[in-house]
Write a structure and sequence with these properties.
Blueprint (H helix, E strand, L loop, with lengths): L1 E10 L5 E2 L6 E2 L4 E4 L3 E8 L1 H5 L17 E2 L4 E7 L2 E6 L4 E7 L4 E8 L7 E4 H5 L3 H7 L7 E2 L4 E4 L7 E3 L4 E7 L2 E6 L5 E3 L4 E7 L3 E12 L2 E3 L2 E8 L19 E4 L6 H9 L4 E6 L2 H8 L7 E2 L8 E6 L7 H9 L4 E5 L2 E2 L8 E5 L22 E4 L8 E6 L5 E2 L5 E2 L1 E6 L2 E6 L3 E5 L3 E3 L1
Parallel strand pairs: 21-22, 22-23, 23-25
Antiparallel strand pairs: 1-19, 1-36, 2-4, 3-18, 4-17, 5-10, 6-9, 7-8, 9-10, 11-16, 12-15, 13-14, 15-16, 18-19, 19-28, 20-25, 21-26, 24-27, 26-28, 29-30, 29-35, 30-33, 31-32, 33-34
Length: 440
C-alpha cells in the first residue's frame, strides 16, 4: 500500500511555549507547544506617541519582544530625547501580541482566566424566564458545540429579548429538560503533534515543523478542526445508517459511516463523543445546519465544531469510492489524525485522515507531499462536470492563473483522461496519490 512522506507545520494561535526540540520523535497525541492562558482582548498602546518618536522607529525602542509576558505598569519601550528619558508602559497585564511600525502601536493581549475544571450547569428555563416549549425555538446551541465566554446560549423572544450566555470556554455536554451542562475545554491551550514522526524544525514561541511517513486519505470537502482516534468502519461504502447507529462504541473513534449522514445522525454522533465522521456525501444545507452560525462556505477548519466531518466525494448523492473505502478498511483499528479544514478560494487545502507509521522505512523519498497541493505526476479525480469522477494523472501545472471557458481566471492543471490531455481548475481536482511513495 502506498505511503506518503509528509511534512506539516504546527502553529499555536498565539505566542506560547514550545515543548520539544529539533530531532525529537513525537507521537500524534504528544503536546509540542502550549499556552498558559486563554487569549482575551487586545489592548492598544500608542507607544510611539508616548516616546515622541516616528511610528516607523518604534521597533528600535522596544524593550519587549512579541510573545513576552508583561505586567501592568512595566515598560514596553523607551527613548532618550534631549537628555530626557521617556517610557511607554503597559496599562494591563498580558502578552505582547504585535508591534506596528506603521501605526506606532503596541498591542497587548489580555489573558482570560482558565477557571476550574468543574462543569457548569445552567437552568435555562429559570435564567431566561421562558417555558420549556418556548426554549426549543430560543436555544442557540446543541450538544457537542464549543462555546466561548459571552456566547449566547438562549435568546428569548419579546420586545426586550433576554439572553443567557456561556460563562466559560467549553463544550456543551448535554441539554435535557431545560438544563444545559457545559464542560470546560482546554484544547486551544495545547498544540498536539498531529503526526507521529520527527521534529524537523522548531519555530520559536510559535510551533514546530514535523515530518512523517503516513497513509493520507484526502476528502473533497470537510468541516470542523482537528481530532484523532482509531478508525472504525460502521457501514459499507453505499450504506446509510439510522440515528440509532451512533452508540457509545463510537466514542473517541474516527467513524466511517457509509454513503451519507442526516443532521440527526451528525448531532447524535457528536453527542456520544465521536472523534470524526467520514461519509461519501452530505447535502450542503445539512452541513450548514450542523455548523450553525459558524458556517463559512469554501473556508472551514477554524470553526467551533467539535466533531470534524469529511466528505470523500461531494455534496450531491454518492457512495464512498471503492478505492477510498478499501484503504480505510485496511486501516481499521489504527490511530488516525483527522482534519476537516477545507480551503478552496485562496490556496487549496482539503480535509484528510492521516495514519502514520510508527517506524520509518530505510529508503528516504526524493520529494515530499503537502496536503491538498496538486503536483505534476499526481493521480487525481475530477470533482465536477464535464469530467466528473474520471481519474487521471497531472502532466503540467501552467504558471499563474489561466482563463477558462466561463471567463474566470483560475489556477489550472493539465490532466490526462482516457489518453487525452484536458485542462481542469485545480480546485476541481481531488488528489488520490501523492509524491514520495514508499512500500511497506
Amino acid at each position: 500500500m502506498p505511503v506518503n512522506f509528509i511534512r506539516r507545520t504546527r502553529l499555536l494561535p498565539y505566542h506560547g511555549t514550545v515543548k520539544v526540540q529539533e530531532g525529537d520523535w513525537v507521537h500524534a497525541t504528544d503536546v509540542v507547544a502550549e499556552l498558559d492562558y486563554i487569549p482575551g482582548d487586545l489592548v492598544r498602546v500608542p507607544a510611539a506617541r508616548h516616546l515622541d518618536i516616528a511610528p516607523e522607529d518604534l521597533s528600535k525602542h522596544m524593550l519587549r519582544s512579541v510573545g513576552d509576558k508583561i505586567e501592568e505598569g512595566e515598560p514596553l519601550a523607551s527613548s532618550m530625547l534631549f537628555g530626557e528619558a521617556k517610557q511607554s508602559v503597559s496599562p494591563t497585564s498580558g502578552y505582547v501580541a504585535l508591534v506596528s511600525n506603521s501605526q506606532g502601536m503596541v498591542y497587548v493581549r489580555q489573558p482570560m482566566p482558565l477557571g476550574d475544571d468543574q462543569p457548569v450547569v445552567i437552568d435555562l428555563v429559570k435564567e431566561a424566564k421562558i417555558s420549556k416549549l418556548g426554549l426549543v425555538a430560543a436555544l442557540r446551541v446543541n450538544p457537542g458545540r464549543i462555546v466561548v465566554p459571552g456566547q449566547v446560549l438562549v435568546m428569548s423572544p419579546g420586545v426586550i429579548p433576554k439572553s443567557v450566555v456561556s460563562p466559560i470556554y467549553g463544550r456543551v455536554q448535554s441539554y435535557r429538560d431545560g438544563i444545559i451542562t457545559i464542560v470546560p475545554v482546554r484544547s486551544r491551550n495545547i498544540l498536539q503533534a498531529y503526526l507521529t514522526g520527527r521534529v524537523k524544525r522548531v519555530i520559536k514561541q510559535q510551533g514546530v515543523e514535523i515530518e512523517a511517513y503516513a497513509h493520507v486519505i484526502t476528502g473533497a470537502y470537510g468541516v470542523g478542526a482537528e481530532s484523532g482516534g482509531e478508525i472504525l468502519l460502521a457501514a459499507e461504502a453505499d450504506e446509510e445508517l439510522p440515528v440509532g447507529a451512533a452508540t457509545a462504541e463510537w466514542q473517541g473513534k474516527i467513524v466511517v459511516a457509509g454513503r451519507t449522514a442526516s443532521l440527526d445522525l451528525l448531532r447524535a454522533a457528536a453527542a456520544v463523543g465521536c472523534a470524526g465522521l467520514v461519509v461519501g456525501h452530505i447535502n450542503y444545507d445539512t452541513l450548514v445546519a450542523y455548523m450553525g452560525s459558524h458556517s463559512r462556505p469554501g473556508m472551514t477548519g477554524d470553526d467551533e465544531v467539535l466533531m470534524p466531518v469529511m466528505l470523500t466525494e461531494r455534496f450531491d448523492a454518492a457512495s464512498i469510492s471503492s478505492f477510498v473505502w478499501q484503504e480505510l478498511a485496511s486501516l481499521q483499528g489504527r490511530y488516525a489524525s483527522m482534519s476537516g479544514k477545507t480551503q478552496i478560494r485562496a490556496g487549496l487545502v482539503r480535509p484528510e485522515v492521516v495514519v502514520c507509521l510508527d517506524k520509518w522505512p530505510q529508503k528516504l523519498p526524493a520529494c515530499e507531499a503537502t496536503s491538498g497541493t496538486v503536483q505534476v505526476g499526481d493521480w487525481v479525480r475530477v470533482l465536477r462536470r464535464p469530467y466528473r469522477d474520471q481519474v487521471g494523472q497531472v502532466v503540467d501545472l501552467p504558471p499563474g492563473r489561466q482563463e477558462i471557458a466561463s471567463g474566470a481566471r483560475l489556477r489550472v492543471a493539465e490532466v490526462v483522461l482516457d489518453g487525452k490531455v484536458v485542462t481542469v481548475p485545480v480546485a476541481n481536482l481531488l488528489k488520490l496519490e501523492v509524491g514520495g511513495r514508499a512500500s511497506e
